[in-house]
């Protein structure tokens, strides 16, 4: 059993769970938020040490259904307006915008406590001081099969069929 599973099961007082959210909008400084009252400096899975700004954020896990794509909803504070500008620019661009959800434990900030959820920004709304974003996982139902397309560049022998 991993330490994060133990913490979820028994909630020992020496371990505090720090959920974090990271939005990597193009041409903007990354938005990093931790659901806490104090900023958090932690090391990502890449070895980069970053600071997550303290602030309220909530997330709602996807409902269990038979759809191939799952969407998570996040709400983050938009006190400075920086989050709204970044999300608006990200939605207007045609680029994929990565959204990463990580959980850190206060006892070990050298790496995330479990594998990060890597998603793509799908939408967003702005209500008062909060930014509501939608991020989704891989869309299995609309994925091509087989994954690799058999073209003449990939399989040169197809030219002679």
For the structure shown, list the relevant keywords.
9-stranded mixed sheet, 9 strands, 161 residues, mainly beta, 2 helices, globular
Short overview:
The chain is built from 2 helices and 9 strands; from the N terminus they run H-E-E-E-E-E-E-H-E-E-E. With 161 residues, it is mostly beta strands.
Describe this structure in words.
- This protein has 161 residues and is mostly beta strands.
- The chain has helices at 3-10, 82-92; strands at 17-23, 31-34, 40-43, 49-54, 57-60, 71-77, 98-105, 117-127, 130-136.
- A nine-stranded mixed β-sheet has the order 3-4-2-1-7-8-9-6-5, with helices on one face.
- Strand 1 (17-23) and strand 2 (31-34) form a beta hairpin.
- It is globular.
- The N and C termini lie far apart (54 Å).
- The mean pLDDT is 82.
Dominant shape: globular
C-alpha Rg, in Å? Answer: 19 Å
The share of residues in extended strands comes to: 35-45%
Low-confidence stretches: none
Helix-strand category: mainly beta
Counted by DSSP, the helix tally is 2
Side-by-side strand order of the widest sheet: 3-4-2-1-7-8-9-6-5
In helices, the fraction of residues equals 10-25%
- Spatial gap, N to C terminus: 54 Å
The biggest beta sheet, please? 9 strands, mixed
Q: In total, how many beta strands?
A: 9
What is the N-to-C order of secondary-structure elements (H for helix, E for strand)?
Answer: HEEEEEEHEEE
Mean pLDDT, nearest integer? 82
